[in-house]
Amino acid sequence: xxxxxxxxxxxxxxxxxxxxxxxxxxxxxxxxxxxxxxxxxxxxxxxxxxxxxxxxxxxxxxxxxxxxxxxxxxxxxxxxxxxxxxxxxxxxxxxxxxxxxxxxxxxxxxxxxxxxxxxxxxxxxxxxxxxxxxxxxxxxxxxxxxxxxxxxxxxxxxxxxxxxxxxxxxxxxxxxxxxxxxxxxxxxxxxxxxxxxxxxxxxxxxxxxxxxxxxxxxxxxxxxxxxxxxxxxxxxxxxxxxxxxxxxxxxxxxxxxxxxxxxxxxxxxxxxxxxxxxxxxxxxxxxxxxxxxxxxxxxxxxxxxxxxxxxxxxxxxxxxxxxxxxxxxxxxxxxxxxxxxxxxxxxxxxxxxxx
Length: 355
Prior knowledge:
The chain has 355 residues and is α+β, with helices and mostly antiparallel strands. The protein has helices spanning 62-67, 75-79, 85-99, 105-112, 224-231, 247-264, 275-283, 298-307, 312-319, 332-335, 339-343, and strands at residues 3-5, 8-10, 15-17, 23-25, 33-34, 53-54, 122-130, 135-136, 155-170, 173-185, 195-208, 214-220.
């Protein structure tokens, strides 16, 4: 007979994974049989019969436990300690980072720059991937969240960030999936009247330093092409020549990029003589795809002009004609597997690395 308690599958003799990384073997003869967990909170290989030892419940003998009806439903609660502090810390850090994408919190980050990011979330040398092959310096996703550009505010905004999945098997590493719900503000600018538009899903691995700040991250948004098209009112057809990728859609994106860089990339950060020069250069570039936000193309520059609002001295060059070493042609076999360069070594997101 199989029973389910939470996410654990339990039968007459199986292993249960509870809140704290430790396995307990449930036996029809013993109320609680277990074995010690591995280093840094990771479970070890289940023991053989010869290696098993009984986890003691000092005040409850097997017969008394059965007499009182202490069956499988409550045995896990008796066997496990509380959630480790580092687990809660890591989860709170990840949730706080995603909360910064919610409007108007993301507006404060864009207007205030890197100094507006709350301290303690990211290590000063944080690096990682988040849709781009490499990203340093832009450590919080808030600048890439939709931001209304009119007064009163209209258009798409993120209204909630829900961690649908989270796990952290040791203090140094966590993995998460978040759903960022996007609503669109109507023409009257009333945020309470904003209607659901679409959802961004991002799955990420996180590596924390000794103080609990994010040192490395590796994040991915599936189907970004579709999400970007829907959130900008072009629907879910992303075929070439249609909607987002029509001639009009492409020119609208180029115009927006060139207009924004003219305001952000000034003085020593200027990369084009004027808006018309920018439009001419970008019109001659490949457009690119939002599922592949790198390369010497328009899409890559669309990402970096947003980031230029945070650090113009870094990202304006990436919007310019040469791509500044970022919006340049790259190679899949290099840029998605350069873990040693980006994270300082391999297996940065495996607890085994830190045992």
